[in-house]
Amino acid sequence: MNKAQLVEAIADKVGGRQQAADAVDAVLDALVRAVVSGDRVSVTGFGSFEKVDRPARYARNPQTGERVRVKKTSVPRFRAGQGFKDLVSGSKKLPKNDIAVKKAPKGSLSGPSATISKAAGKKAAAKKATGAAKKATGAAKKASAKKATAKKTTGAAKTTAKKTTAKKSAAKSTTAAAKKTAAKKAPAKKATAKKAPAKKSTARKTTAKKATARKK
Fold first, then answer.
1. Residue 174 burial by Cβ neighbours in a 10 Å radius (0-12, 13-18, 19+)
2. Are the beta carbons of 38 and 51 closer than 8 angstroms?
3. Which residue intervals of 37-113 are DSSP H helices?
4. Which of 17, 52, 116, 131 holds its CA 20 to 30 A away from the CA of 2?
5. What's residue 31's pLDDT?
């Protein structure tokens, strides 16, 4: 039986060929996706599908007999359930007007019990509380880091301001000292300038004396 024959076999039970094809595709897709992700799909009375990891090993080429190394790989595996085995072996007979695979117990598909639901609710609440606590802790750490950074920035600004003030004071002191030195030097220059005319008058007197001596 291939897929098309399988669809035809269940078409009357699900309301039509298209509905049967969609149902088969949906079941196979869910089965393949679950096994690929590593989940085990178990159907009571039918069997289970699972992913099996095979380590690297050595095998023999059946044609040449040569020893070949096989890489590590993963393969799907199906294990038939006990009900399926009993039907195939003949220890149990196929029902004529019922489904061969044993149905799930009544009420098992209605959802988890009240106790399980409460436990799941408590776990979810605990996870939420833990997540909120982690977020609050993270926010507090960030705020502390921001405060520390602000303090460092303020301290650095104060230090820079102090250094700038010290430099300004030193510059003022240097300027004042330069002014005093210039003020001291200025009178000396004036005095030197005043003495210069005296030398000129002495030179004039000497020239006059020489002229008088020549006339005599």
1. exposed
2. yes
3. 82-89
4. 52
5. 94
CB–CB of 36/46 below 8 Å? no
What is the rounded distance in angstroms from the CA atom of residue 136 to the CA atom of residue 143? 10
CB atoms within 10 A of CB 208: 10
> For the whole prediction, is pTM greater than 0.85?
no
Q: Nearest CA to 102 among 82, 119, 127?
A: 82
Question: For residues 110 and 143, what is the distance between their CA atoms, to the nearest angstrom?
Answer: 49
For residue 155, what are its two tokens? Answer: 């301290």
Nearest CA to 26 among 8, 7, 13?
A: 7
Asked if the model's pLDDT at residue 199 lies above 60, the reply is no
- Region 43-60: what's the mean pLDDT? 93
Percent of the chain with pLDDT over 70: 47
Give the separation between CA 142 and CA 72, rounded to whole angstroms: 46
56 within 8 A of 69, measured Cβ to Cβ = yes
Q: Which amino acid is at 65?
A: G
Angle at 143 between CA 141 and CA 149, to 5 degrees: 105
